[in-house]
Design goal:
It is found in: Periplasm. The chain is α/β, with parallel strands linked by helices. The protein is built from 13 helices and eleven strands.
């Protein structure tokens, strides 16, 4: 099934395709860590807001609070669960280690599928009765309205050339956390955690040697001005933003408002993956033209990177299995969806 139809099908699965009555107007607080000028807001949150308003004939008013104005990203899940926030944006890497373990699928290295295919596979596995739904969403009392994965992360901005896998050894690399810490370590790098806004100054001062980012993020944070090298062509993971809502709050809305939110999430996810795929190529070309040295991994290097990082996925799955979470089953299901 095409991604553009998956979330519409999910709408019917939860009974939202029935007849509708007139709904009272509702205002929903939408909190995100992302700055107001960043693509995650301009091409994500604001798109969701507009579509939800249009589809509900104005009965759903989404108020967007960017830049952690409505709460810290580390508190977002709790804020949504408690009702202090109606809709929130989670970063997968912050929660994949404990409360949303199967979101680690977004951070697996070596995935060669397109972003829309990745998002579509995650939507499939988040449908009622599926693995993410039963193991991540139901226990937390939430639903995911939209998946917004970023283009494949890699050493997109480094202070030194990265033309060979050996060049990664010993580099202090900022990463998004979660599985990418293990991927960095498997390749001989030194994983460093810090917030995205701290990266520019850390690169400038030499506190870190590079960052695992997409080129979309390199442009957003102007990192090409302090890091003149990078590499592309192998995914170190596709961490993403998850637009969530508590199931209790969702069920409190009128059926037509529920349907508007589900459809707004579907359209936002589709718009996002198409936008970032296009922007990633444009941003990379622009940086190369401006003089940035961006190495493209050769087929032989991709094969070597795949071999070295293969243990990361296996270890992740087995670790979850030991916790009673179906990691191996989820990994197989995710790969199966991507192959369809």
């Amino acid at each position: 099934m095409k991604f553009s139809n998956r979330m519409a099908a999910a709408c019917c699965l939860v009974g939202l395709c029935a007849g509708m009555a007139q709904a009272e107007d509702v205002t929903l607080r939408f909190g995100t860590l992302i700055a107001a000028s960043a693509p995650g807001v301009t091409e994500g949150a604001n798109v969701f807001k507009r579509i939800a308003g249009e589809l509900s004939d104005g009965s759903v008013n989404v108020q967007v609070f960017p830049g952690e104005q409505a709460g810290k990203v580390t508190q977002t899940l709790d804020l949504v669960q408690s009702g202090a926030l109606d809709i929130g944006v989670l970063t997968s890497a912050l929660y994949s280690s404990d409360r949303l373990p199967l979101m680690g699928l977004l951070e697996l290295p070596g995935v060669s599928a397109s972003l829309c295919e990745v998002a579509g596979a995650m939507v499939d596995l988040s449908a009622p009765g599926e693995l993410i739904y039963e193991n991540d969403l139901v226990p937390n009392g939430i639903r995911i309205l939209a998946y917004m994965p970023y283009p494949p992360y890699g050493p997109a901005a480094t202070r030194v050339p990265v033309d060979d896998i050996e060049d990664l050894k010993g580099l202090r690399l900022r990463n998004a956390g979660g599985l990418m810490e293990y991927t960095t370590a498997a390749l001989g790098g030194v994983p460093v955690r810090m917030s995205a806004p701290e990266v520019y100054q850390s690169l400038q001062r030499g506190t870190i040697d590079g960052v695992l980012f997409s080129f979309l993020s390199v442009k957003s944070y102007d990192l090409a001005s302090v890091a003149k090298h990078g590499a592309t062509g192998f995914s170190f993971g596709t961490p993403g933003d998850l637009v969530i809502m508590s199931e209790r709050r969702f069920q409190s809305l009128a059926p037509e408002q529920q349907e508007a939110l589900v459809e707004a999430g579907r359209q936002t996810s589709q718009h996002w993956c198409e936008y970032v795929q296009k922007s990633e190529l444009e941003d990379m070309a622009e940086m190369r033209e401006a003089g940035m040295d961006i190495h493209t991994w050769t087929p032989e290097q991709v094969e070597q990177l795949t071999e070295v990082t293969a243990s990361v996925s296996k270890t992740w799955a087995e670790t979850l299995d030991a916790r009673g979470v179906p990691g191996t089953e989820a990994l197989a299901a995710f790969r199966e969806r991507l192959s369809q």
